[in-house]
């Protein structure tokens, strides 16, 4: 038996809400799916290395299966022919899922303002965090991961079922 603050024995009590416990679990167990197409992928590899050690943040297990990942990290130039694949990967991920656009190319097309390059992945899927740079330093990648962790920790359990969120997904033609 656990002793209650008033001195009586009881079954115990919770000092926090269920949402905070779930948020803490989500925050500390993000499994990234790296979708690297160019030089930003090299910076992600450096972030995974011993000097920066992304495992300190609970993200040491990159998942290369969308069904086992909850953080899509899009890095590098996305050609328009690649856009349907990125969208399909996003759709295959289970809820809740977050997206991090890493580098100038994934965020806005970068220096490639051409007919064949997608001018930002936010044209096909919703993006939660943008990491600037060309390519961004590993410190910036870790900062972006910390921002996603803050979103995961503080997101309401009901947000994903809200009409606003469903409307956002519908605007991208995502089920």
TrEMBL record:
It catalyses: a quinone + NADH + 5 H(+)(in) = a quinol + NAD(+) + 4 H(+)(out). [4Fe-4S] cluster binds at residues 39-40, 105, 134. Residues 39-147 form the NADH:ubiquinone oxidoreductase-like 20kDa subunit domain. The keyword Transport applies. Binds 1 [4Fe-4S] cluster. Its cofactor is [4Fe-4S] cluster. It comes from the Bacteria. Keywords: 4Fe-4S, Cell membrane, Iron, Iron-sulfur, Membrane, Metal-binding, NAD, Oxidoreductase, Quinone, Translocase, Transport. It is a peripheral membrane protein. It is found in: Cell membrane. InterPro entries: NADH_UbQ_OxRdtase-like_20kDa (IPR006137), NADH_UQ_OxRdtase_20Kd_su (IPR006138). GO terms for molecular function: oxidoreductase activity. Signal peptide: none annotated. Belongs to the complex I 20 kDa subunit family. HAMAP family: NDH1_NuoB. NCBIfam families: nuoB_fam, PRK06411.1, PRK14820.1. NDH-1 is composed of 14 different subunits. Subunits NuoB, C, D, E, F, and G constitute the peripheral sector of the complex. This is NADH-quinone oxidoreductase subunit B. It comes from Adhaeribacter terrigena.
């Amino acid at each position: 038996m656990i002793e209650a603050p008033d001195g009586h024995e009881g079954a115990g009590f919770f000092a926090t809400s269920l949402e905070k416990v779930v948020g803490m679990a989500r925050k500390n167990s993000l499994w990234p799916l790296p979708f690297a197409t160019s030089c930003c992928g090299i910076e992600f590899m450096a972030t995974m290395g011993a000097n920066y050690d992304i495992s300190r943040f609970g993200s040491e297990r990159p998942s290369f299966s969308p069904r086992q990942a909850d953080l899509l990290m899009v890095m590098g130039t996305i050609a328009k022919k690649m856009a349907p694949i990125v969208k399909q990967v996003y759709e295959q991920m289970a809820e809740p899922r977050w997206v991090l656009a890493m580098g100038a190319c994934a965020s806005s097309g970068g220096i490639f303002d051409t007919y064949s390059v997608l001018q930002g992945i936010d044209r096909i899927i919703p993006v939660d965090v943008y990491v600037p740079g060309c390519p961004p330093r590993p410190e910036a990648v870790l900062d972006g991961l910390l921002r996603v962790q803050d979103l995961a920790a503080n997101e309401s359990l009901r947000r994903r079922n809200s009409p606003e969120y469903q409307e956002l997904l519908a605007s991208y033609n995502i089920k």
